[in-house]
Design a protein that fits this description.
134 residues; 4 helices; 0% strand; Four Helix Bundle (Hemerythrin (Met), subunit A); mainly alpha; single chain
């Protein structure tokens, strides 16, 4: 029985390490997109609109992650897939400056890492999931 308590403690400690990694990955994207939107020179109106959608969705996910468990990782995954799709669409804008195009690829990688961390956290701390509130 004592070992079970130790196991739960180590899972909890591991969970505390995982969540900041996911948040950090997503915050990096938010910061870059916000900078791009502050100085939108070279961004098409479609790209600017897509960035706005990505920011809104990332804000939703970050709000949930800041609150911590419980959350439904599958629901977060669906939102993050939508954000990845936004960055894919941005990467298809061939008039985009090279740096922005490169970032869109990097953003998709960061989102994939964040999703992995979210699922890792979910596996470490099994709880009932709550749906996201609109």
């Amino acid at each position: 029985m004592e070992n079970e308590g130790l196991l739960m403690t180590s899972e909890s400690e591991e969970a505390q390490k995982v969540l900041p990694v996911a948040i950090e990955e997503l915050e990096e994207i938010v910061n870059k997109v916000e900078k791009s939107l502050e100085n939108p020179e070279g961004l098409s109106p479609a790209t600017q609109e897509t960035y706005q959608v990505a920011l809104t969705e990332l804000s939703t996910v970050l709000g949930v992650l800041y609150r911590g468990k419980p959350f439904d990782p599958k629901e977060l995954d669906l939102i993050l897939r939508k954000v990845q799709r936004c960055f894919y669409e941005v990467s298809q804008d061939y008039s985009l400056p090279y740096e922005e195009s490169l970032f869109s690829s990097h953003a998709r990688t960061l989102i994939s890492r964040a999703k992995r961390e979210i699922y890792k956290l979910d596996a470490l701390t099994p709880q009932t999931h709550m749906a996201l509130q609109p």
